[in-house]
Every structure is written in C-alpha cells, then in structure tokens.
Amino acid sequence: MEAEKATDVSDIQNEDDLDEEPGEVIESAPPLEVGEERELGTSGLQKKLLKRGYGYETPELGDEATVHYVGTLLDGTKFESTRDRYEPLTIKLGQGRVVKGLDHGVVSMKKGEIALFTLPADLGYGVVGGGGSVVPSNAVVRFEVELISWITVVDLSKDGGIVKKIIEKGERNERPGDLDEVLVKYRVALVDGTVVAETPEEGIEFYVKDGHFCSALPKAIKTMKRGEKVRLIVQPQYAFGVEGRDANNGFHSVPPCSVLNIDLELVSFKPVIDVTGDAKVIKKVLKEGEGAWVANESASVTVSYIASLEDGTVFEKKGIDGEQPLEFITDEEQVIAGLDRAVATMKKGEQAILTIHPDFGFGSIEARRDLAVVPPHSNIVFEVEMLDFIREKAPWEMINHERLEAARRKKEEGNLLFKEGKYQKAGQKYDKGVDYVSEDGNFGDDESKLARELRLSFWLNGAACSLKLNDFQEAIKLCSKVLDIEFHNVKALYRRAQAYMQVADLVLAELDIKKALEVDPQNREVKLIEKNLKRLQVESNKRDAKLYTNIFGRMTKKLKVEKVENEKR
C-alpha cells in the first residue's frame, strides 16, 4: 500500500491550510502527558493520550493516513476493529470514513502515537459495526487509534487538477525555480496501468522554464525538494486534454481525456541565477560552496577558471594545467564586468558555469587573450571555482579608527574614479563611504569631528557626480543634507543652485546664489552661474511675456466677437 511506504510527513503545505480547521488543536496549552485527557476544540471530542508519538509533525485534513483503530461503547462492547482484520486502514482525512468527527482527532496525532478518543452522542455513529452489532444513534463511542503513517496530499492547482501525494520527504528546504536545471526520474501510467512514458534509469535533465512532457510536471517540480518522491494525479486539462497525444519522441500515445498517474522523483537540481537581472550574466551552480558568506563587493578573491567561446574554443585558463590562479579585488574593474559581478555572489569552494553577454564581456572590441582571440560581440563562458576570498569588513564589524581609515580609502577611490570620468562608480564609492561615518557610529569628540567632515565631503562629492549624470534631484537632496548641518557651505549652495537651474526652479537657484555670495562675495564660480542665472531669467521673462500677450490677445479677440454678435441682436 502507498500509505505504508510513507514514513514521514512533508512540511509542504498550501498557505491556505494555515487557518484553523474545526476541531484542530491550535492553542498555547502544553502537550498532553500519557494518561491525560483533554477536549479538542469546541466539538466535544475528548482525547486521552495512551502512548507518545515521535517527531513534531502532524497530518492535515486532506492527507491520507494509515491507522489501526478499535471502536467500543462506554460499557466496553466492541463494534469495529482493524486489528481483528490484521491490516490497518488508509483513510482520507476530512471525509469521515470511519466516523464523523474522528478525523479531527487524528490530525492532532504524531506518527506512532496511540490515543483514545471519546465522541459525544451528538456527533452520531448510527451504523452497523464490523462485528455486526448496531450502534445506537445517540450512543457515546470510543475509538482507540494508532497513527502508523500518512502521506501528505497537496492540491497544487487549487482545482483538483494536479494532486500531489508525498511518498518520501526530500532534503533541506530549497526548491527549484524556473531558471534551474533539474534531474528527475518519472514513470507515467494511465488509470488502467498502461505505462506511456518512463525516464532512463539515470533520469533526465532539463531546465524548468523549458517544460517537459506535460504542463503538470514543471508545476509540481517547483514545489519539491531534493530527493523528494511523489505520486501525481493529473486531470486531462493539465495533461493532454480532449485531444490526447500521438506517439512521438519516444513517448507512447495518450488517449483523449486521460487522467495520468505520475511517479516522480526530484533527484537533484543545479540553481541557475540571473546575476544582472536582465539575463546577460547567468550563473549555473555546479557545486555549492561552504558556509553562508559570499565574496561581497571589494573582497579580495582567488579563482580558477577555463574561459571559452560558445563554440568551445578556450581562450584563457587560470589555476588550471599549471597556470597560477587569478587574484583580484571585486568591484574595482580589474576583470570584465560579468566575471566581477558573478564572483561577488559566490561562496568559498563553489563551482559554477557563467554565461556572459558581450555587454558584460569584451563588448564590440576584439580581445587578444592568452590562448585565442575573442571576436567582437561574443558571448563567452567561464567555468569558475572560488578558491578563497577575504571579505571587506562591514562598518559594524570595525572599530572606530578602522571605520575612519576605510572611509578615507573610499574617498580616495571615488576621487580617482571621478577624475577618470567614471561618475557612476565614483558616486557608489562616496555613497558607501557614508556608511563608515554615519552619525550612529559612537565616535569620540575628535573622531566625531573627522567623521562629520568626511560625511559632508561624501555628500558634496556625490552631488558633483549626480550633476555630471544629470540626476539633478539627487544632487539637490545631497546638497540639502550638507546644508542641514552647515547652512553656509558655499559648495553645497553652489551645486544646489546649479541643480535648481537645470530643473528650471530659478527662484530657489537665486536664493542659493545670494546666500553663497553673502558668505564669499568674490567667489568666481558662483559669480559665473549668477550671470547664467540672469540670462535664464531674461529668457524666462520673455517667454512669460509672450505667453501672456498671446493669452490677452485671444481674450481681447473673443470679447470683440461677442460685442459684434450682441450688437447684431
């Protein structure tokens, strides 16, 4: 029997099942002790624990449970017993196959548990017992129940179209996604037992997003864990519908309107990650790395790899065949962007295949590498292993003088990038630098003064980057942060005035310029943008005058027409 194969319950459940069911025990009361009795819910069902089960999981309504039970009246008269038949019974919880209300007691039990349930008369029994005795409809009855095992049953499609029965629980909690490559084994049969499809002994690999066999298969696979084995009952609308399917590609024909029984095992899967979010750098994990940490930005990493073109031509090797591994610092543009971005997501010991679009590779140029030439606009492939890395410390991991030193480095790195015209990268350095000297850093007096100066410098420099990138609102925001602390800061007033002029807020730009000149009347740069502001104001006034003239002219013309029409009347 299927139920006898199940030794554990899966923790995969529909989220809808989290709501309390009638008679289900969801309470803060302590677990029952052996010999203790308690009412379950408000139905009047009483439970007395006779033998503890093990584990912490319990079945849900809808699951298929395998039980032994003995039914008696209060005087001890036995009217039903599976033990007399020497074979347990498999029931679908929630259908009340044994007796109304008893299912709600079974869902409170753990595997191996034995309990005595007392059902009040109003739940009613009123049937002929297996022993031939009639149970009065108003009788109070007792059932001694042993929960042997159960199979978790999940309605994947929410309409009964794909029902999953978990035969063997999988490992860990990860489940494959659309991009992942899975290795599965399956056997597909019709209701009469005719096998219409079966994988080889070693299984078959495919990407979930590409689909396989029928639409139900990838839907089910995305709910499974590694090593999980299930039985799927698939209705025609999720199989091959009213048309069925002709024999092809090694699959037998499937008659129209066929229900399929699919025994499915998820052997393993290789996570596939869209590193850049636009499918231009794809990482397929061949071997998972160690621990929880990945090589973050500015980490010092050591990697080995084989780099090739899509046709398999190898153009570079590092750490392979006697070559030295490659050492570099991430996010410093020391390698191509695709390799840089992907390596920053890897754990120590991780092995992966990277597929990199030209936008994150060598672009439109011809690149001469150690072993071959990479033509322009080439997709490239790296089989890479993370040998080791040293992560850059996060601000909270540092003591004060380390944070100040790290902030100075970020400023220097940002300044160098700014001089090279790499304004976006420079802005990122300045933005990260602020984290090291934030106001909640608990600095001492002298350190606090230095941290404040660095913080203001990062905001001012970030505003300069934003102006270069035409992100004027960001420039206004950063300058305003400075002016909240130093209301007379000429650089902040000057750069905010520039941003206001670009968004045509000439009134606020004039206010900032006036404040800046009050502090530094001879500042040449401020005087220059004052001159530009006056020119813009003149142009704006001319446009306004022309606009008002046109509006006034149309109104005058309209009044004249109305006057003529009135005179005609």
Automatic annotation (TrEMBL):
Entries under InterPro entries matching the protein: FKBP4/5/8-like, PPIase_dom_sf, PPIase_FKBP_dom, TPR-like_helical_dom_sf, TPR_rpt
SUPFAM superfamilies: FKBP-like (SSF54534), TPR-like (SSF48452)
Per-repeat ranges for TPR: 490-523
Presence of keyword Repeat: yes
Keyword Repeat: yes
Known catalytic reactions: [protein]-peptidylproline (omega=180) = [protein]-peptidylproline (omega=0)
Pfam families: FKBP_C
Molecular-function GO terms, alphabetical: peptidyl-prolyl cis-trans isomerase activity
EC assignment: 5.2.1.8
Composition bias type Acidic residues, residue spans: 13-24
Domain (PPIase FKBP-type) ranges: 62-151, 179-270, 298-390
Stated family: Belongs to the FKBP-type PPIase family.
Protein name per Swiss-Prot or TrEMBL: peptidylprolyl isomerase
